[in-house]
């Protein structure tokens, strides 16, 4: 992947201190609205099933009394019982089908919104999370959060059952209802304890999952380094270090759930036994019939049934915790664009006006005032940490400055439309990320797709045409099967930038993996064969700076000097910037003289 310039700016929060719960609630409400019809159908089917379940004990009790009395009109009551039972089964089946559909649609909606916001926020937004944590939030956490709309819709019927059962008990016999009401406080305390303990445990469990994923992705990205260093076991230990917490939190969640089930398993039979005892006494006293006693027992089971309530509550708590983690993806402010266009045929004049960039509370660039005349190639040099990549990032609005403005042909970048900005400003990076099915697709990837001749010309200018033609199918070779070296990938990244070159092209150390001969070829092609415009080149080699029209020398986040390379070369401090390259023999290879520009 390319070295992300996003780390040079701090994303602006959408609303300072906004609680995560608010964002999670908004996310889940939005997902429910996206499937409003199906979500409503879940609630209606659940209510219909609950209604049938509540009516069935009374119908069964009445039918039993009629059968015991030898009445002749039991047929309609038997039909009613069968109809209620059938309706209950059918509604439960429809609910199960709708729950699966709504959950899948909700996952798609949440994932699209979160991913759209992450991409819209640009590199600064994505930089808030590690790659592994970001993937975990967009996959596992989204899947768990997506269950909330269906679980919430199904929660209402699960509450109707105990409420309906209690009301039916009161209507049949107030004494048996009083027994159940006496045990209600214990049931409520059980639910409250379960809710509190589960919320805490699930949130910590999901954080531990994200931590493991982040470490794993990091290790996979550095697999060659780990193998070369022989530190596989050490990395394995580091990656799995959060397993202890994950195990502890997982056990905590299951212990809480197990305690709730165990307590309800003891409490509910005791309540039902007490209801049965009172009902038996009422039957013996002639206050209840046999059918009514049967109904009383069924309604007692419905009124005290915590199984469905606990299950729905657990699902909602898991979804809420996952939604909070997912909502953090959309908590930052997306990069907004204007609607202005650039003046036609502009030369690409780039201007920095009092630009300040802050990252993680640290000022990376301070008060940069710099003008790059249109058509000029500007090399940006400086020691590591001087702010070169930060300057490159704000130059093409991959990040916004904390203060100040960047203008292209007199128009502030923040006022430009997205399409205009991306068509006229291109980037090439040190480690480019290549996208597309084929090699030609990787070069064509961008705001528009150039025609085949332009792709070939761009590849030739980047020194990539020769090795691409040696691939089994040339430009049609599958990208994921092409054996590319680091330098070849960098040349394809340059070809992509050249194919889409606009009035400003930013090269962020994009020739670092090229040998000197190839670099000279690329620079000459950039000057003569690629669409003319302004070039901003982050340079680490003195030879690269020597070929530029002007050099901006950064030091400590400020511009120390601007001038031609041969002029600045007279300063000892400037020469020290390239000491490492000079000692390595890089700048004088193949006859290069760092004091002269090569045209």
Characterize the structure shown.
- The chain is 61% helix and 10% strand.
- The protein is α/β, with parallel strands linked by helices.
- A six-stranded mixed beta sheet has the order 6-7-8-3-9-10, with helices on both faces. It has a four-stranded antiparallel beta sheet with strand order 2-1-4-5, with helices on one face.
- The two termini are 31 Å apart.
Which descriptors apply to this entry?
61% helix, 10 strands, four-stranded antiparallel β-sheet, 599 residues, disordered C terminus, six-stranded mixed β-sheet, alpha/beta, elongated, 23 helices, disordered N terminus
Number of helices in the DSSP assignment: 23
Q: Describe the global form.
A: elongated
Overall average residue pLDDT: 81
Q: Share of helix among residues?
A: 55-70%
| N/C terminus separation | 31 Å
The radius of gyration computed from the alpha-carbon positions, rounded to a whole number of angstroms, is 35 Å
The unreliable regions are: 1-19, 582-599
In terms of DSSP E residues, the strand content is 5-15%
Number of beta strands: 10
Strand order of the largest sheet: 6-7-8-3-9-10
Structural class call reads alpha/beta
